Amino acid sequence: MALFGKQKYTVVKLRRKEMPDGLWTKCEECPEILFNKTLEENFKVCPKCNYHFVLGSYERVNMLLDKDTMAEFDKDMKSADPLEFKGPKTYKEKLEQDRAATGLKDAVVTAEGLLEGKKIVLAVTDSRFIMGSMGSVVGEKITRAVEYATKNKLPVVIVSGSGGGARMYEGMYSLMQMAKTCAALSYHNKAGLAYISVLTNPTMAGIMASFAGIGDAIIAEPKALIGFTGPRVIEQTIRQKLPHGFQRSEFLLEHGLIDKIVHRKNLKNTISQLLDYLS
Length: 279
Known about the structure:
By secondary structure, the chain is of the alpha/beta class. It folds into two domains: 19-53, no CATH class; 54-278, 2-enoyl-CoA Hydratase, Chain A, domain 1 (Alpha-Beta Complex). 33% of the residues lie in helices and 18% in strands. It is built from nine helices and 13 strands. The protein has helices at residues 36-41, 57-64, 91-102, 136-151, 172-190, 205-208, 231-238, 249-254, 267-278; strands at 2-4, 7-9, 24-26, 33-35, 71-73, 108-115, 118-125, 156-160, 195-199, 203-204, 217-220, 226-227, 260-261. The strands form four sheets. It has a seven-stranded mixed β-sheet with strand order 5-6-7-8-9-11-13, sandwiched between helices. Strands 1-2 form a two-stranded antiparallel sheet. A two-stranded antiparallel ribbon has the order 3-4. Helix 4 (136-151) packs parallel to helix 5. It is globular, with a radius of gyration of 23 Å. It starts with a strand and ends with a helix.
């Protein structure tokens, strides 16, 4: 209580209401602060600048497959440590760390399901798990899924979100998966079946040089980084400045590497239409 002249005043301290954590997300492309619920409703795309946030593999599956139609393949398959890879962090430690962080056993989810009523086989790589890199498990799961599709005469859709390429922790075992997945897709193609490759940010290195780059139709999300070696490494190697937008979806569409750029909210319908055309 404070006394001013003959009048008495009571000083009341108002407690500032705290804002709960986890309600807002800062866009990685522009200054916009986004309410998470609004972001989720917009397929995790910034409504101001159209930046496409990274999606986890199960988020992708739920976005593409009709509700309650997913039948997952090889869910419990785990990577071994064939080289007993040593370093500041061993391969086993890295695997356990990413399993705990993502809830995944490895960097790909494969499944059968319906997309707008059409039965497909779907594979989705996840950049949150060792950058979506391809080791023995990723290659084996994709190969098994494609072979299942060939046997059952089903189209294949693979969504690639892999910035890590072949997984260095497994050496040659990892590189072998590039040939193995492509061989399975070759038999699938010879059977007259459709394969649609969807490229997201990022799709790089051994992933892009194998199954991601050989679709009957190759479509990409806007502004996705797509290529073999990253632009910074290329500039340092050739000692030249690369063109604006090099290795982004728009640049690659202009130069004929991909067939179409599709906003995430239109992806399911676009794949459905392509399946009609290709079938």
